[in-house]
Inverse folding.
């Protein structure tokens, strides 16, 4: 399919990369590698000589996407995690759906876990209230509702096509025309919230972000970072709010997140406490404005 270019950003994702690339082998594929040391490059050169490899320093996922898109032919770009892969003709289905919805800047498929169960991928844009429902456990009171769980689209069963706020970035079909209008992904987001910001900008420019269950991809989830970048996740939330709603809103969110991660450090299992304590220390160390100025 000449009208789709696949961009895969990799960093030591060797256990899943071969399956990922096999599923898109009939399409132009660009692998942006951020310094893998696990044999990724050797595998690609040996098994997938048709794949174009770009070796780049690790400047984050958005930077990897942009590097791949810059050399891709389009007019659609499939941004695919190295730990995700198509089920059957999922890519063709995504493109057909996008063709039928010409104002769709982004189309996302149904994501499945390794065991075939649904991986919820539809999300609501962050607000202080929505972060409170997650970090203060409020959503546990009614997880299947939008009122208390809009951040995770709790009222949506992922069983029908729908216009959404944003979609997890594990697998996104992005229209070149929309990128040309809105601009590339914001590289100030290193990992987490880059897709949130991009979808927000697409919406603001009058484009749509759509989910379809008629195409399915498997996504391992956290295979590359193994959940080790919790602080970066929080930084992404603060950066999004500061960029689109101002530093005062980001500061309110910082205080909320601090209370939330302190609670998690106190009540969650011991093997997860170190990450929460580290995050709490970071959040308590300065204002949101100062935390975002200092970078990673």
């Amino acid at each position: 399919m000449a009208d789709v270019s696949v961009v895969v950003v990799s960093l030591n994702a060797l256990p899943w990369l071969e399956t990922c690339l096999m599923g898109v082998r009939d399409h132009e594929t660009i692998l942006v590698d951020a310094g893998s040391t696990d044999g990724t490059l050797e595998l690609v050169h040996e098994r997938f000589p048709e794949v174009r490899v770009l070796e780049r320093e690790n400047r984050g996922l958005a930077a990897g996407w942009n590097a791949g898109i810059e050399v891709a032919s389009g007019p659609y770009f499939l941004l695919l995690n190295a730990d995700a892969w198509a089920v059957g003709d999922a890519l063709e289905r995504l493109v057909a759906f996008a063709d039928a919805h010409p104002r769709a800047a982004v189309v996302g498929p149904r994501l499945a876990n390794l065991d075939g169960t649904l991986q919820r991928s539809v999300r609501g844009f962050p607000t202080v209230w929505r972060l409170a429902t997650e970090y203060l456990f409020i959503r546990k009171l009614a997880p299947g509702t939008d009122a208390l769980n809009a951040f995770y689209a709790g009222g949506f069963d992922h069983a029908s096509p729908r216009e959404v706020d944003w979609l997890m970035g594990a697998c996104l079909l992005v229209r070149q025309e929309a990128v040309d209008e809105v601009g590339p992904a914001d590289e100030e987001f290193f990992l987490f919230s880059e897709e949130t910001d991009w979808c927000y900008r697409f919406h603001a420019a009058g484009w749509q972000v759509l989910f379809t269950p008629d195409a399915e991809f498997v996504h391992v989830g956290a295979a590359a970072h193994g959940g080790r970048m919790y602080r970066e996740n929080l930084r992404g939330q603060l950066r999004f709010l500061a960029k689109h709603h101002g530093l005062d809103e980001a500061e309110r969110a910082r205080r909320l997140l601090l209370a939330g991660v302190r609670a998690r450090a106190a009540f969650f299992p011991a093997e997860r406490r170190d990450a929460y304590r580290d995050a709490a220390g970071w959040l308590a160390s300065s204002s949101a404005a100062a935390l975002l100025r200092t970078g990673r």
